[in-house]
Amino acid sequence: MTSRLPPVYEHHRLVPQRSFAELEVGERFPLPSRTLGDGNFAAFQALSLDNHPIHYDAEYCRALGHPGPLAHGLQVLCFTVAGAGTFPYTVGENLVGMVEVRARILKSAYPGDTLYPCLTIAELKPQRTTGVVTMSATVDNQRGERVLEGEHVYLMKL
């Protein structure tokens, strides 16, 4: 397959491109850690339009027994976006796109928590002209507690 990308792109790849057949179950793609701060909460509020005080009002949260505002579950899920790591660069132009995402929030995340997301290839299903890559998505906090677990499913060209 000839790439439609400019030739200079080949000299600026972050990692060598690999095909579906070159991927392996168990392969890990760690994502950058993030310490939650006011900026994260404000940005997600602006994006999601969620104005519930459980996510933004420290006094409201303390009255309910929380140490501070709770990070929105979708916000924590966003930290597992594959584009934050090397997976989409690894598969390059073979990536068709994400076709499914599932997640369970297991523990609350608060301002000051540092989150450590990771994607791990859980299953590879070749089809006739495409392949399905299922990745487990996890987010642990600075205490090693699992905050989120789920799956991302991607479609790739073979």
From TrEMBL:
Domain of life assignment: Bacteria
Record-linked InterPro entries: HotDog_dom_sf, MaoC-like_dom, MCH/BMMD
A Pfam cross-reference name: MaoC_dehydratas
CDD domains: R_hydratase_like
Domain MaoC-like: 32-139
Ranges that cross the membrane: none
Protein name as annotated: MaoC family dehydratase
Phylogenetic classification of the source organism: Bacteria, Pseudomonadati, Pseudomonadota, Alphaproteobacteria, Sphingomonadales
